[in-house]
Amino acid sequence: MPAASHIPELPLTYRPRAVRRWGYIVAAVFALACLVMAVSLPLLTHTVLDSLGFVLLALAVGWFCHRHASVHVRADAACVTVRNAFSTRRFEWAELIGVSFPEGDPWAHLDVADGDTCAVMAFQRADGERGVAMAREFNALIDTHSLRP
User: Fold this and answer.
1) Which CATH number fits the domain that encloses residue 94?
2) Which of 3, 23, 103, 112 could form a disulfide with 69 if both were Cys (CB 3.0 to 4.6 A apart)?
3) Residue 6 included in any domain
4) In a domain, 31, yes or no
């Protein structure tokens, strides 16, 4: 991936736009629907456990949407933290080789010196050119801050 021409100051946090917006919208609509179902069904046809089930389902879907909406990459002078939907990984700058964002992939991948890769859900194809530009900018940060020759 070619380097970006502008290298921003640290600390820096990258977040996707589309998944944040839609994640919280879906969570709110689903929670409202579950709340309506929990309180509007006649008590003769369901029990308190049924209502509790709707509330628990709304909480589970809300948590799931929040995890997806809160993905980010946080870079500071010491390290890089990648928070994906269900995992958080911390890397020293020297461990990072670069960012790859193959055409057709939903999000970018971080190449690590030990041969491993790490999905970076903060750089998403759904954000269009903005997602690609953020990945390029972060790749330039890696080139600047890693200690590789």
Assistant:
1) 2.30.29
2) 23
3) no
4) yes
Asked whether residue 59 is domain-assigned, the answer is yes
Q: Please tell me what DSSP assigns to residue 3.
A: P
pTM of the model: 0.83
CB-based contact 31:62 (threshold 8 Å) = yes
How far apart are the two ends of the chain, measured CA to CA in Å? 18
Total residues found in the chain within this entry: 149
3-state secondary structure of 72: strand
- Give the DSSP letter string of 92-127: EGGGEEEEE--TT-SEEEEEETTS-EEEEEEEEGGG
Cis peptide leading into residue 149 (ω within 30°): no
- Per the structure, the complete domain to which residue 105 belongs is given by 71-145
Q: How far apart are CA 73 and CA 89, in angstroms?
A: 10
Distance of alpha carbon 9 from alpha carbon 148, whole angstroms = 20
List the one residue out of 113, 140, 104, 110 whose CA is nearest residue 122.
110
User: How many structural domains does the chain have?
Assistant: 2
The reply to whether 38 falls in a domain is: yes
Burial class (CB in 10 A: 0-12, 13-18, 19+), 99: buried
